[in-house]
Amino acid sequence: MECVFGLVGKGFALVVADASAVHSILLHKSNEDKIMILDSHKLMGASGEAGDRAQFTEYIQKNVALYQFRNGIPLTTAAAANFTRGELATALRKSPYFVNIILAGYDKETGPSLYYIDYIASMHKVDKAAFGYGSYFSLAMMDRHYHSNMTLEEAIDLVDKCIIEIRSRLVVAPPNFIIKIVDQDGAREYGWRKSINDDHISAA
Amino acid sequence: MARYDRAITVFSPDGHLFQVEYALEAVRKGNAAVGVRGTDTIVLGVEKKSTAKLQDSRSVRKIVNLDNHIALACAGLKADARVLINRARIECQSHRLTVEDPVTVEYITRYIAGLQQKYTQSGGVRPFGLSTLIVGFDPYTGIPSLYQTDPSGTFSAWKANATGRNSNSMREFLEKNYKETSGKETVKLAIRALLEVVESGGKNIEVAVMTKDHGLRQLDEAEIDAVVAEIEAEKAAAEAAKKGPPKET
Question: Subcellular localization, per the record (chain A) (predicted)?
């Protein structure tokens, strides 16, 4: 039921994730942030086993930070993606992580990029990607409307189209979504799309 | 005494651990390093022994970041320092991962000192030949701290300290001249202490300033030269003031 998707625009990349924390039939909260900010210019949207998701993304985040301290310069997006894939691959034949990842980053030399990394450690560099049941709808929507070098307005419009499609067609559609963006000014939250408001409950 | 300085696990009859003392000798031969704690600024300064003409000086950084809010300078065996710094950096991230909190300066100092002590009580290894000056701001209270560790594994907090070559002269100078400072004054005090034992000039010292908001910032040669010039001008003015009045009798 988790929906994570992302796309690359002109000088930026977006990652969108649903905000539901679900256990069986119970919805714990609907303002869960599933897009981790790895460093100043990288985003990692993750879906899958809740414990693995938090544990694995935090582990990657701390290793990305360690690299920067050791070497004085940050990892490129490609390097971070390959490192992540490597960790998933190593764990695969021992005790696999059930986490699907969409990694978006901005490098000064190469611009924005997006990586699709699934839980069995396959990795693809792509312009648009999606995970979960929502992918049936968001990927179809993006295939129809996406073109390279979209402006931010066009891209957000496409994201909203995907969210509307998920909400109207997925039987247990997540009520809320979070959108994060990464561009030359860094990685940051762009906004929320909420149909249930539980803001008075503080987000972890 | 010769029989008691081989394996470091052995005490000498009069209670010395010779390997540890020899490690302290190695520290005394290392470059001078000074640390000064101000109210809102902490300064680390290290003597730069003459760099070879063909060497890229940017690859020889003596003051390093352990985390966003912690920095370290050391005196002694640089190769040992690399190992210790690497372990400390891993520990900083590991701490953040397990308890979701950045380390305090005291925690990481205790960790480094603990590591140094372990190597004084193991078979077949020698102690790390370096003393470190560790500075940082507490991540929540914002209080600045300066700690020193040595090869024996002891550590303590200081308002200002020096280690390495001629550390005694620098420490004496600091004891005489220390007062609560902030901002640029802290930088000046640290550089003045270093200049007691180092040939003056931006080429011979490396200085880094840590503030709560901006983390660690290495001063470039021009900035150091500017402060050195100020210090020399102040010294000259003080000398002139001393010599001046007696002539007017």
Answer: Cytoplasm; Nucleus
Q: Do B90 and A66 touch (CB under 8 A)?
A: yes
Within a domain: A161: yes
Structural domain harbouring B137:
17-48+56-236
What residues in A contact B86, CB-CB < 8 Å? 70
Question: How far from B249 is each of A171, B181, B237, B242, B243, CA to CA, in Å?
Answer: 102, 38, 20, 14, 12
Is B246 contained in some domain?
no
* Partners of residue B92 in chain A, C-beta under 8 Å: 69
Q: Give the separation between CA A163 and CA A167, rounded to whole angstroms.
A: 6
Is residue A199 in some structural domain?
no
Per the domain annotation, does B249 fall within a domain?
A: no
Q: Into how many domains does chain A fold?
A: 1
Judge whether A40 is closer than 8 Å to chain B, CB to CB: no
- Whether B122 shows a pLDDT value over 60: the answer reads yes
Q: Strand pairing of B144-149 and A42-48?
A: unpaired
Residue type, A107: D
- Supply the ipTM of this predicted assembly: 0.84
* B67, B94, B97 ranked by CB distance to A69: nearest: B67
What is the number of other CB atoms lying within 10 angstroms of the CB of residue A67?
Answer: 19
Please report whether residue A157 resides in a domain: yes
pLDDT at B7: 62
B89 contacts in chain A (CB < 8 Å): 66, 69-70
CB distance from B91 to chain A under 8 Å? no
| Cβ pair B86:A58 closer than 8 A | no
Best mutation target, B56, B58, B67, B93, to test chain A (most A CBs within 10 A): B93
CATH number of residue B173's parent domain: 3.60.20.10
Flag the least confident range among A103-107, A193-197, B160-164, B245-249. Answer: B245-249
| Residue found by looking up tokens 């020193």 in the block | B148
Per-residue model confidence as pLDDT tens digits over B181-216: 999 999 999 999 999 898 866 788 999 999 999 999
pTM of the model: 0.89
Chain A: residue whose CA lies nearest to B68: A69
| Number of domains observed in the structure of chain B | 1
Q: Which residue has the tokens 């394996």?
A: B7
CATH number at residue A108: 3.60.20.10
